[in-house]
Amino acid sequence: MAQLSPHLQQATGVTAVRGEGCYLFDAEGRRYLDFTSGIGVTSTGHCHPTVVEAVRKQAGELIHGQYTTVMHPGLLELTGRLGGVAPGNIDSFFYASAGTEAVEAAVKLAKQATGRTNVVVFQGSFHGRSTGALSMTTSKVAYRAGLQPMMGGVFVAPFPYVYRYGWSEDETVEFCLRELDYLFATQTAPAETAAVVIEPILGEGGYVPAPDAFLHGLRERCTEHGMLFVVDEVQTGFGRTGTFWGLDRAGVEPDVITIAKGLASGFPLSAMGATSEIMAKAWPGSQGGTYGGNAVSCAAALATLDVIESEGLVANAEQRGKELLEDLRGLQSAYPGLIGDVRGRGLMCALELNVDAGAGKAILHEAEAEGLLLLPCGPTGNIVRWIPPLVVTADQIQDGIAAFARATARAGYLG
Fold it and tell me: How much is the pLDDT for 414?
């Protein structure tokens, strides 16, 4: 009998047959508060009526117009809309289906635009699972195990993970920038480094925000040495962090961005954006793909942008995120032996537990029994990430916190 690969490890035991807003439902009609958002994808909630209607309409007109063969109106409109919200001077876009493809495209562009061979990434990063992007991923050894050697020319610098180092934020930033400069002096010279690639908030690596001062330091070094500043906004973009882009809070401009996840409310669509000047330096034939810019996915993306704007979801993410962090810190104050750190921005928050991965898994299993779906992250799986849809209400935040507290007590850690 045919089966799914056993290596597609399941985070929950739920088989979802329907979704609505912040909830998923199984075949028996049981409702689950979904604080996973399909790993940060369903920002407008499950089956938002505006998105559903746009998809239905588009599917009845044109499902697939391969964008290096024919053009279609949705792709052109989406490009204009993205240009209107993109950070800095980014105004040129390449489309693909998954975030890892966008990262691959960004690296190819950086190498061709600069004529340089190397890239610098940061410890704990996650940039995808294809060979090039995986070579840049250091969030967990399981992703790379058995696949060495990876693509050459990738150098890893320390990320300012303040809680892990145990220093102040200023001390951590100073150390990490100093180590980056040391890397440039000992492993890859700036003159041979095409790009510095970073997530504004580590995703799979533990939901660790990069301090503003660190991002400014990277921007300064890229400008000084002619390296491209590539910002991976796959998980942080489209309002997730309480600003439209994860980088916005720092007030620095990227040369290249990669986007996906929250872009199309669950439909496969990603993009790599750059300034026209940089994009023009890509070599002919270096960009393409069968499904990039799919017509139905573009319709979903346009509807998603409409919903984000009309329903004020960026502001909602900021306000609900403040409430979520406050509640999580309340749990930390009550149970400091269990919860080591609370961090995040907007609706991209995390609890770092002072327990092993098995204990963390037990807590999440009990949360599922309480009707709350959460995901772990970090190299040992002891970090619980909270990524509800951007349409989440204050009452739903409270419901999630209460369910987690009950689950943790059931697992034997709160009393």
Answer: 62
Buried b (16+ CB within 10 A) or exposed e, 332-364: beebeebbebbbbbbbbbbbbbebeeebbbbbb
Of the candidates 312, 263, 300, 305, the residue with the CA atom closest to the CA atom of residue 102: 263
Which pLDDT tens digit goes with each residue over 61-112? 999 999 999 999 999 999 999 999 999 999 999 999 999 999 999 999 999 9
Reported as a pLDDT band with limits 50, 70 and 90, residue 331 is very high
| Cα three-residue angle 75-77-79, rounded to 5 degrees | 70
In CATH, the number for domain 52-310 is 3.40.640.10
Query: For 95-121, b where at least 16 C-beta lie within 10 A, e where not — what string?
Result: bbbbbbbbbbbbbbbbbebbebebbbb
- pTM, two decimals, is 0.96
Fold assignment, 16-47+312-410: Aspartate Aminotransferase, domain 1 (3.90.1150)
In this structure, are residues 390 and 317 in contact, taking their beta carbons and an 8 Å threshold? yes
